[in-house]
Amino acid sequence: MNDPSLATFARLRLTLLRNGFRRSPWQVVAFVLGAVWAAGLVVTLGGGLVALRFSALDVARPVVVGLGALAVLGWALLPLVAFGVDETLDPARFATLGVRRRRLVPGLLLAGLLGLPGTATALLGAASVVTFSRSLPAALFAVPALAVAVLTAVAASRATTTAAASLLRRRRTRDALVIAGGLLLVSAGPLLNVVAARAGQGLVDLARDAAAVAGWTPPGFAFAAAADAAGGQWARAALRLALAVAVLALVLAAWSAALGPAGTGPSAHAVASARADERHHPLLDRLPPTPAVAVAVRCTRYWRRDPRYLMSAASLLVVPLLLVVLPLAQGGGAGAWPLLTGPALAFVTGWSLHNDVAYDHSAFALHLATGLRGRDDRAGRVLAAVVWQVPVLLVAAVGGSLLAGRPDLLPAVLGATLALFGAALAVSSVASALVPYPAPAPGANPFQSPRGASAATVAVQLGTSAVTTALAVPALVPAVVAVLGPAWAGWIALALGAAGAVLLPWLGVVQGGAVLDRRGPEVLARVGSS
Predict the structure, then answer these.
(1) Burial 74-88 (b: 16+ CB within 10 A, else e)
(2) Which of 136, 205, 416, 439 could link 358 by a cystine bridge, Cβ 3.0 to 4.6 Å?
């Protein structure tokens, strides 16, 4: 069948609702009771939000941002304890209709808005627009910001509902839980310290601080953006709105991925399965089919699917948590800490490849059996990291400079970021061939440390960290000078960092490839037996 329009989904949703009333009088009663409850909630909370329009912004901001973030979390988590509450939105019902996911996702999103919870949330979002209508530009900015918040809430609910049935039956669920648990353990300590430090200030101050932290979390980005616009902080408002849009895009992408074959139809699924190996990355698809690009394609699959790589990527969230969220939660603003976000992420992302070959385990034998040159192996791994890490680093560097209120230091921050990233890639390209150490095997717990690997792990990690920092010093020195003295020194850091970001990885690929050509069998023996 042809892909249905959004209006078709809307009519289908309303038709199913009307037919349900005809089938069961109790459903009419339940709907009326739900409508009365939703109307009371909208009138009560909506009236409060409108009243906040006439209060100080310092009072309205924490209330709206805190409650808004909790509302988005409620939308995302409630389906996990009330799964199947809305069977009319079950995507499996579309499995035989051949509806493409790019049409199914927005259609179901619109249908979700037409239910009682979606309508109530949309009305409360409109009331929040009134709260932040301190000026005409602020009101115009709040409309798309809070629309993004409402769409994110509904999309998060649909994503968790769709994923729950199949995800909870898969072995990968254990890996996801391990990753989530690890991130909670890493972040719980600093967050508890903040709560303990603030507990003596009273519940009001604690709630205000919690709302400030929520404004820098995915559920609170959009609400905080509207609040920033109302306060005239346009750079911060634009940044948070961009982050909110990115969160919505990620939620929609996760929802689309969770759909799997459900709703795509047999023929569409067959085509998707047949072409699954042909879709890699928009940039990689445009490169010539060389051995290095083939390695990069394989590595990008690892970054998307392997829990060990996913754990490494997810751990990057700790950096902005420590450098942005916690300083803001301590009060007095973030200070200069956000300036370190880009350089710190650059170090961590590039350095994470220093034992990359060990993650191949026994599969590394294919590289030796096919006669793949060490240089191609090194270049492919670097390319796979660059295609997704460079955009992240650029956003972190620009965002950190804006959050610190020092856009004049952007050249210095970019220079330090590029220098550390290039140096880390170079060191990683050599180290993973020269001194690989055992890593968790494919399918194992990402936190598992192979027996006897602790001492080697610590030694290699300390050594590679020290060498990475030393190689980046030429660009780091003028970057520090720019922070402490004349900002124009940042342009020197940017020039040196850009040169290092190109030259150092190239030298690392060449030298690391030569080492891998010499020590290929030894490397296989080392990583394949872990």
Answers:
(1) ebbebbeeeeeebeb
(2) 439
pLDDT by residue (tens digit) across 35-62?
A: 787 788 888 888 888 888 888 888 888 8
The DSSP string of 47-85 is HHHHHHTTS-HHHHHHHHHHHHHHHHHHHHHHHHHSTTS
pTM (two decimals):
0.55
Counting every residue, how long is the chain?
Answer: 530
Element (H, E) at 372: none
Residues 508-530: tens digit of each pLDDT: 999 999 999 998 888 888 876 65
d(Cα 433, Cα 508) in Å, to the nearest integer? 11
- Cα gap 164→175, rounded to integer Å: 15
Report DSSP state, residue 2: P
Q: Is residue 455 over pLDDT 80?
A: no
User: What is the distance between the alpha carbons of residues 429 and 377, in angstroms, rounded to a whole number?
Assistant: 9
Q: Which residue's structure tokens are 């941002």?
A: 65
CA of residue 359 relative to chain centroid, distance: 23
What is the rounded distance in angstroms from the CA atom of residue 367 to the CA atom of residue 38? Answer: 61
Q: What is the DSSP string of 83-111?
A: TTS-GGG-GGGGTTTT--HHHHHHHHHHH
What integer pLDDT is reported at residue 264 of this predicted model? 46
Long-range contacts of range 243-247, CB-CB < 8 Å, 24 or more positions apart? 243/218, 244/145, 244/148, 244/149, 244/152, 244/218, 245/148, 247/152, 247/218, 247/221
Reported confidence tier of residue 266, pLDDT bands at 50, 70, 90: very low
Which of 289, 296, 291 is CA-nearest to residue 376?
Answer: 291
From the number of C-beta atoms within 10 Å of its C-beta (0-12, 13-18, 19+), residue 311 rates as buried
Cα 373 to Cα 292: distance, rounded to the nearest angstrom: 9
Would you state the structure tokens that stand for residue 440, as one six-digit string? Answer: 């968790």
Long-range contacts of 42-49 (CB under 8 A, 24+ apart): 42/120, 42/123, 42/124, 42/127, 45/124, 45/127, 46/123, 46/124, 46/127, 49/124, 49/127, 49/128, 49/130, 49/131
User: Could you give the angle at the alpha carbon of 345 between the alpha carbons of 498 and 454, nearest 5°?
Assistant: 120
- Pull the structure tokens for residue 303: 């970054």
Between residues 333 and 82, the one the model is more confident about: 333
Tokens of 405: 């209120």
Distance CA 503, CA 507 (A): 6
Contacts of 488 (CB under 8 A, 6+ apart): 482
CB 127 within 8 A of CB 49: yes
Torsion of CA 416, 422, 423, 427, to 10 degrees: 160
Q: How confident is the model over 432-450, as pLDDT tens digits?
A: 888 887 777 776 555 555 5
Whether 387 shows a pLDDT value over 80: the answer reads yes
| DSSP secondary structure string for all residues of 404-435 | TT-GGGHHHHHHHHHHHHHHHHHHHHHHHHHS
Residue 124 corresponds to which amino acid? Answer: L
